[in-house]
Amino acid sequence: MRRNDDHVISAKTASSSPLRPFGYIMMSIAFLFAAAVFAGRDRVERTLRWLFSSGFLLAVGSLIVLSLLYGNDLEYRFEVMVILIDWMVLIVSGVLMSVVFKRAGRDGSTSSFPQCFPS
Q1: What is the C-alpha separation between 70 and 65, in angstroms, rounded?
Q2: Does residue 117 lie in a domain region?
Q3: Which of 31, 59, 81, 105 has the fewest CB atoms nearer than 10 Å to its CB?
Q4: Containing structural domain, residue 53
C-alpha cells in the first residue's frame, strides 16, 4: 500500500473500476442485438444467433447468480466471469462471421449478407 496525503490507497481499489463490469454488460447487450442480424438461413448463421443470445444470457445470469451467492462482496468475481464469457463469444463469433461473410462475398452481391429484416 502507498500513502497519498490522508488516504490509504490499496492496489485492489486503485486498479479496479466499477464501470468496467458495466461496460462488459453493455457488450453483452450488444451481442443480443447482433443476434437479430443473423436470420438463420443456414447452420452457421443459426449458430451465430445462438452464440450471441447465449452470451448475453450467460453474462446476465452470472451477475444474478453471483449477486445471490456473494451479495455486495462481488469484488472481482463478476468482472472475471463476464470478461471470460464476452471474450469467448468474440473469439468464436469472429471465426463464424468470417465464414458467413466469405460465403456472401463469393456470391458477389450484397443481397446475401445477413439482414435484420429478411424478405
Answers
A1: 9
A2: no
A3: 105
A4: 20-106
28 within a domain of the structure (yes/no): yes
Residue recorded with cell 461496460: 23
Rounded-to-integer distance, Cα 87 and Cα 55, Å: 10
Give the per-residue SS3 of the chain.
CEEECCEEECHHHHHCCCHHHHHHHHHHHHHHHHHCCCCCCCHHHHHHHHHHHHHHHHHHHHHHHHHHHHCCCCCCHHHHHHHHHHHHHHHHHHHHHHHHHHHHHHHCCHHHCCCCCCC
Report residue 21's pLDDT band, with 50, 70 and 90 as the boundaries.
Answer: confident
Cα–Cα distance for residue pair 2/83, rounded to 1 Å: 29
CB-count burial class (<10 Å; 0-12, 13-18, 19+) for 33? exposed
